[in-house]
Specification:
Layout (H helix, E strand, L loop, with lengths): L3 H8 L6 E8 L6 E12 L6 E8 L8 H15 L4 E3 L7 H8 L5
Parallel strand pairs: 3-4
Antiparallel strand pairs: 1-2, 2-3
């Protein structure tokens, strides 16, 4: 169960310190979110503005490039906002996400 503060943090984004994008399938009442990517600024100082980045993709849609596309769009938005670094915690067994990061072209 989310606390009120956690719910607010997840749903009320300012597109400055927190950005989220979703991928959907279907239309109208059949539209469903199948993936999401988000970043939250953790350090705005100097030229090393950093944000923590995270992704979730529904299991049936893994290995279709959704996280890669989300990462590309988030990186573009972050650059426009003056951020120069993403950080993420990824479990060693999460080979899919490690592959997304290693093939991203980002340092």
């Amino acid at each position: 169960m989310l606390t009120e503060e956690e719910l607010k943090s997840a749903t009320e984004l300012d597109f400055e310190s927190a950005v989220a994008l979703v991928v959907t399938t279907g239309e109208g009442e059949h539209e469903t979110i199948i993936g999401a990517g988000r970043y939250a600024v953790i350090d705005e100082t100097g030229k090393s503005g950093s944000a923590e980045v995270a992704f979730t993709v529904e299991e049936d849609y893994h290995r279709q490039g959704i996280a890669r596309i989300l990462l590309q769009h988030l990186a573009s938005i972050a650059r426009e906002k003056g951020l120069s670094r993403f950080v993420a915690e990824v479990l060693p067994e999460n080979r899919g996400m490690l592959t997304v990061f290693s093939r991203s072209g980002l340092p």
